[in-house]
Amino acid sequence: MSQYTDGFLLPLPKDKVEEYRAISSKAGQIWKDCGALEYREWIGDDLQVEGQMPFPKAVSASENETVVFAWITYESREHRDAVNVKVMADPRMAEMMAPSTCPFDYTRMYYGGFSNLVTA
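RESULT FIELD:
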């Protein structure tokens, strides 16, 4: 059975990195508690690659923002769907889901589900 991954890319104000780290650490624990195989978030470091479309441009990041690149891995798409139902029902998520307390502009977040193409 091939694994399934949800991926996302989002702009994050540089002065909100530690606030976001605290929230994403909690979210990661919730996803893992609900059955996700892996939860990873990465902060932009080398984002200006000449001749390529840089991630900051994709999310319309300002000079005061960086980019978070992340994924959550599951056994399958069906497993992802079941895990996400549990995550959304988890009371720990309620406090983190309010748009008014979100440290980034979630309307500029890119998200998608991906089936495995190559494993090397």
